[in-house]
Design brief:
The chain has 2 domains: 4-38, no CATH class; 50-132. The longest helix is centred in the last third of the chain and has 40 residues, at 90-129. With 145 residues, the chain is mostly helical. Residues 1-9 and 16-23 have low confidence and may be disordered. The chain contains 5 helices and 2 strands; from the N terminus they run βαβαααα. The chain has helices at 14-23, 50-58, 61-82, 90-129, 136-144; strands spanning 7-11, 34-38. The protein is elongated.
Length: 145
């Protein structure tokens, strides 16, 4: 349960809102807005380089790989179910067999690529957190060692 003493409710006065309305940023704000504020016990800020930031932004590829892998594997399973139809013509059977094989191969490759990208992203985050300026790894090494 949260302690009620940790919360403080404040309202933004209407005088403050009228100045933003004059600027034109938010013409819909005309009433008082309650603001709940929680005390922050600790805030950790890490130094980050430009290339690491780009790696973190690029980290969204993992979900793309997973989405395409799921699509490819489900399509392959659907085509595999068609291969068990007894009255399927031979040419259609050959096409479905090739598409099924291709779908499974592409699906597994994309799944492994997403796992590789996730490990790369985890390594980048660990490298950022283990900088001498953060002191985090030195503390953990001292505790475990």
């Amino acid at each position: 349960m949260r302690d009620k003493a940790a919360f403080s409710e404040k309202s933004i006065p209407k005088d403050t809102l009228s100045s933003t309305e004059k600027v034109g940023r938010s013409p819909y704000v005309a009433e008082q807005i309650p603001v709940r504020r929680i005390q922050i016990q600790e805030l950790v800020i890490y130094d980050i380089r430009e290339d690491e930031l780009e790696d973190l932004v690029r980290g969204g590829r993992t979900s793309n790989y997973q989405t395409h892998a799921a699509w490819s594997l489900s399509t392959a399973l659907t085509l595999l179910s068609f291969l068990f139809v007894p009255s399927l013509p031979k040419i259609l059977f050959a096409v479905f067999a090739h598409l099924t094989t291709f779908g499974f191969a592409v699906g597994w490759v994309l799944l492994f690529m997403s796992l590789k990208e996730r490990k790369s992203l985890d390594q980048t985050l660990e490298k950022i957190k283990c900088r001498p300026s953060s002191g985090r790894c030195a503390d953990e090494l001292g505790k475990t060692g």
